[in-house]
Amino acid sequence: MPEVIPVGADHAGFELKQRLVAELERLGYRPLDLGTDSGASTDYPDYAHQVADRVEHGDAARGVLLCGSGLGMSYAANRHPGVRAAVAWTPEIARLAREHNDANILVLPARFVTEQQGLEILRTWLTTPFEGGRHERRVRKIDRE
Question: Would residue 49 show up in a list of annotated catalytic residues for this protein?
Answer without folding.
Answer: no
